[in-house]
């Protein structure tokens, strides 16, 4: 019997069948991540034992990498190491290159009752076949593991499949970096983007410039808590570290044996304060600097003088000796131009090169570095700000501020790697539960990551070819330990891996979740930290259509049923939806097989005159921050005072908030209370004013009542607006966006974000 499985067939298989597979059954989808293109499962199995042999071409170094990886893994798993055999035959694992398999990273894995074969055109394909084979082993270690009879034909959707790690904000030991690379390899990611330099620390040894190790690698202290906390506090402890060139070579070689290319990033022209602290002649002012201790963007950038270009070229020469990668990432993001505007050298260069402005100067800077690297056979990658002022001729763009930069670059014929914040920034919160560890902000649950597709539909078929792939980014301002880095990265990284490898039409989140469960069990046995939110209840309180308030609750695993409590008392209701008639604390809990599973979610609902009524927004919020729908501002629930990315906040990027609330009948009211999020470090600004008017017919409105908004010291701005002689059915609410972020602030020159929460009508 043979059955072809893909994502469409798997979604119909109940969870107990998946569990039965791990108990020995062979009639269910296999727990492989990323999902292969074709899986043909048959009856029977192959059992490894101490007599199992392995065959491969000993003369092929990279083939040996794949074979040795598998041999060592089997030894650690079963306690025996397969003997090497020059011939195949029964009870043998064969790895061979074959022209029958097309594609640089494609492979064919065959498991029969008598043996296993992995074929590929190139060694990388053999290695990925090895990873799929390893995932077929039972989670529980045994000396005689049983592997199902199966044939897998597979290759990736994208050539560039990346994961990033910022070591500038926090340094991570060599062994952790290796373990990070191990996880990339296990899930068929092939690019490790190593962010090595920052305002807060320079992490790579450069022999020509020893003060980079002596000064730039260490800061006086580190921020405690969040950037937006007031007052800001520090730990008073010197912090730092760097990787010696020997350690860098060790890591690069380690990655190469796992078919992972390490791409170094040396930031320029911004994020340069650590370097300038060691070599002041690189800066634009005579001010003596220290390595930055506060997160965010500093004004201190490289001065475009000959000393700077000599320094950077010498640094890059040593970097190129260490990293064989064709790509060198040169940053290019978040470069304030204030110092260039007043610096004589910068202004003279603008005039000499006939540049339009400081944005043109940044383009000149990037082009000059690109020319140098191109002369040495290398190519640059830069964050999407390198588009400003004109894109360097051969540059690849990493699109992080949404997809717009990537779309622009692809239309211009430049290669693009998609890594938008709202889908690929793994330093964002991954759960709305209050016990989540401190993160930079936002809300990026596993299902949202998984739902991303890197190719924008607005591109033509020809333009889509310039999308090389996708990358997940792990920034570490708020991640100081390996355990937290793992927790924040896994399993969202595995979702990135499936985005990058599996064809879009085969993807299905429910299937991914079921295949993920055994991987989590394996990570636990290996001592790997990870975020497990599969069974946590997620709630949203729905409003806005005039039918009242409703709680909607579910868990990502789609298992069990939801039970509810009101103020600690169990309600008879079960299911994914609960109608709300009064204020109180509502708690939802997953119940599976009669027992609670995962974390419960509680929500405090306080009804008011407008809660549950109709609302119509003139402009929709950003798709990244839609709250629980248009009715979020009148659902009786206050958004988190710490996280703007929860289910309540509506986020508007540069747009005003304007809405009309229909109370259903003429009502008398006295005031409206407003609530806004304040987070300049995340480009979020409170509005300067609010405005309300009212009407009986929805056409003719009263003269607006306005009020100013006071910027708070903390994260929440509360504003009350008295509504004299307030009486009507309709209320029109206007909250103008702050506008453009001012100079000297994070995101200067960009549109500010406006985050709006509950509009409480009394």
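Sequence proposed for the structure above (762 residues):
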């Amino acid at each position: 019997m043979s059955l072809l499985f893909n994502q469409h067939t798997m979604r119909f298989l109940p969870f107990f069948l998946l569990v039965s597979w791990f108990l020995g059954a062979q009639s269910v989808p296999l727990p492989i991540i990323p999902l292969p293109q074709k899986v043909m499962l048959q009856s029977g199995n192959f059992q490894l034992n101490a007599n199992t042999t392995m065959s491969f071409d000993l003369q092929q170094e990279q083939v040996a990498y794949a074979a040795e990886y598998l041999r060592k893994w089997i030894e650690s798993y079963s306690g025996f190491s397969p003997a090497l055999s020059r011939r195949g035959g029964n009870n043998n694992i064969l790895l061979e290159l074959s022209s029958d398999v097309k594609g640089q990273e494609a492979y064919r894995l065959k498991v029969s009752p008598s043996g296993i074969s992995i074929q590929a055109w190139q060694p990388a394909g053999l290695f990925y076949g090895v990873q799929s084979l390893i995932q077929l082993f039972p989670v529980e270690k045994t000396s005689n593991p049983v592997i199902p009879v199966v044939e897998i034909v597979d290759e990736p959707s994208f050539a560039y499949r990346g994961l990033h790690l910022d070591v500038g904000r926090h340094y991570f030991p060599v062994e952790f970096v290796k373990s990070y690379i191990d996880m990339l390899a296990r899930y068929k990611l092939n690019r490790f983007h190593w962010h090595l330099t920052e305002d807060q620390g320079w992490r790579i040894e450069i022999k020509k410039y020893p003060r980079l190790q002596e000064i730039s690698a260490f800061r006086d202290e580190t921020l405690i808590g969040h950037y937006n906390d007031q007052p800001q506090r520090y730990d008073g402890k010197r912090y730092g570290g760097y990787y010696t060139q020997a350690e860098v070579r060790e890591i690069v070689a380690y990655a190469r044996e796992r078919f992972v290319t390490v791409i170094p990033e040396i930031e320029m022209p911004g994020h340069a304060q650590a370097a300038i602290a060691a070599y002041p002649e690189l800066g634009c002012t005579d001010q003596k600097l220290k390595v930055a201790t506060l997160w965010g963007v500093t004004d201190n950038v490289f001065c475009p003088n000959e000393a700077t270009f000599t320094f950077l070229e010498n640094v890059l020469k040593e970097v190129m000796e260490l990293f064989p990668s064709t790509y060198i990432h040169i940053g290019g993001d978040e470069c304030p131009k204030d110092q260039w505007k007043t610096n004589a050298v910068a202004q003279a260069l603008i005039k000499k090169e006939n540049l339009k402005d400081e944005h043109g100067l940044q383009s000149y800077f990037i082009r000059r570095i690109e020319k140098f690297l191109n002369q040495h056979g290398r190519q640059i990658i830069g964050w999407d700000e390198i588009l400003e002022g004109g894109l360097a001729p051969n540059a690849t763009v990493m699109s992080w501020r949404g997809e717009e930069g990537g779309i622009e670059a692809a239309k211009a014929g430049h290669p693009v790697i998609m890594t938008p914040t709202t889908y690929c920034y793994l330093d964002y919160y991954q759960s709305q539960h209050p016990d989540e560890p401190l993160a930079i902000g936002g809300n990026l649950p596993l299902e949202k990551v998984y739902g991303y597709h890197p190719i924008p539909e607005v591109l033509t078929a020809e333009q889509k070819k310039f999308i090389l792939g996708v990358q997940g980014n792990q920034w570490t301002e708020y991640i100081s330990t390996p355990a937290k880095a793992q927790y924040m990265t896994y399993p969202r990284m595995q979702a990135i891996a499936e985005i990058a490898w599996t064809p879009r039409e085969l993807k299905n989140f429910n299937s991914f979740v079921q295949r993920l469960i055994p991987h989590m069990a394996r990570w636990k046995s290996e001592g790997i930290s990870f975020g497990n939110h599969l069974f946590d209840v997620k709630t949203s309180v729905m409003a806005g259509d005039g039918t009242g308030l409703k709680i909607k609750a579910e868990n990502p695993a789609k298992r069990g049923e939801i039970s509810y409590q009101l103020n600690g008392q169990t309600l008879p209701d079960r299911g994914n939806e609960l109608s709300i008639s009064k204020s109180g604390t509502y708690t939802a809990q997953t119940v599976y097989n009669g027992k609670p599973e995962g974390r419960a979610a509680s929500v405090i609902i306080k009804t008011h005159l407008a809660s549950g009524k109709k609302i119509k927004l003139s402009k929709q919020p950003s798709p990244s921050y839609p709250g629980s729908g248009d009715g979020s501002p009148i659902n009786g629930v206050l958004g988190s005072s710490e996280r703007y990315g929860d289910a309540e906040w509506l986020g508007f990027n540069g747009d005003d908030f304007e809405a009309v609330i229909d109370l259903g009948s003429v009502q008398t009211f006295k005031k409206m209370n407003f609530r806004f999020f304040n987070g300049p470090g995340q480009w979020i600004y409170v509005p300067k004013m609010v405005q309300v008017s009212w009407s009986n017919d929805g056409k003719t409105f009263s003269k607006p009542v306005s009020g100013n908004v006071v910027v708070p010291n903390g994260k929440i701005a509360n504003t009350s607006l008295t509504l004299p002689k307030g009486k009507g059915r309709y209320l029109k609410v206007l909250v103008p966006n702050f506008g453009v972020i001012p100079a000297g602030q994070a995101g200067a020159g960009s549109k500010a974000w406006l985050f709006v929460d509950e509009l409480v009508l009394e």
